[in-house]
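[Target chain]
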Amino acid sequence: MEFLAILTLIFLIIGASLYLLVCVDPNSPGLLGIMNRFVFNTIPTIIKKILGERIFTIFQRAVDYFFYSNHPLVQIFYVLVAVGGYLVYLYFGFLELFGDNPFVSHLDTSIGSTMALFCFYSFFQACRYKPGIITKENNKEYVNEFKEYYDNVVYLKENQCKTCNIIKPARSKHCRVCNVCVSRFDHHCVWIRQCVGQKNYKYFVKFIITHAILCDYGAYLGFRCIWGIIVKEKLLEAQFRDPVTKQRLQATWGIIVKYLFYKNTMYIFIVILCIVMGIALTCFALYHLYMIGQNTTTNERMKRSDFLNFFDEETERLEKQLKDAQTPEDIKQVTSKLEQVKQCQNRIIPAQSIGIWKGLKRVFNEPDELDQTIKIKNKKKQ
């Protein structure tokens, strides 16, 4: 049982980590970009050399389907993990340990269960509401809404999406998985089986925050419950018998942890899962709150960073050429290129710090795609 619990925990952590890496742009700078390239480029190359072309092709198709196609497997996985995890916590924690514990009670059971229901409902909302799909009918509306963001560097005016055959509004992107253009595109989320964009960003944020709070609360209750068991059973003062030597040993933290894990394996396992997922989801929620306060998106941050890095490298290259230039004509030519690069760099619209509270109000006041569709149709009738 202990081995199975540990193996399941490792599997869940690896699975969640892989799906987080899928959301990262492989060309983005930093550790996450390097990890994405290693997992999805370097490792497949090694596997191809080991397995051969034919077997690798089958493996590659399975990977492409699992990570880059719009399938319901991850949603099913979420239901199994989230609902199954709650039921395990309910049975092995709330019902078995919370009734006669000095530090937790069934009031915590009610609070935790209510929070779990909110989480499941937030998942339903995040899956249900569309991200703001740009079509030929609403194309002009989105173009006009974000026209001040055209800087002719990151976002070009009259730039056409060749797949959707529409003018691309600023801050939008064509998603290759969903095969649609999405307004104020943030990223494609495999957990909700669609993109996160202008119209459903509030539901995605609610989904992340509620799950982070639930996991953190589950970890907090776990610590209180375990400490209650230690106090109630007086484990710090107890003596334990070694199963091999039959020798009596005074309690140490190592012995107590082994005893608790042996006696409450499933509950300890689910608490550890709450800790791991709580840390990951809290960091993810804080990241998105920061992005909301900066009035920007994940896609914009990465694109802006890529352009700025390119211009910095180009500036450095041209400055070296300028030092090595011999003739006045070469100096004039390099100086002209350097000015053009700096002009382009200065045209990039930076992130706007509007504050988290104002950003949240803007995000949550955004109408749903259904409401926006009705609004557009009414305008056309007028």
Summary: The longest helix spans residues 201-232. The mean pLDDT is 84. The beta strands are 133-134, 160-161, 166-167, 173-175, 180-182, 187-189, 194-196, 239-241, 248-250.
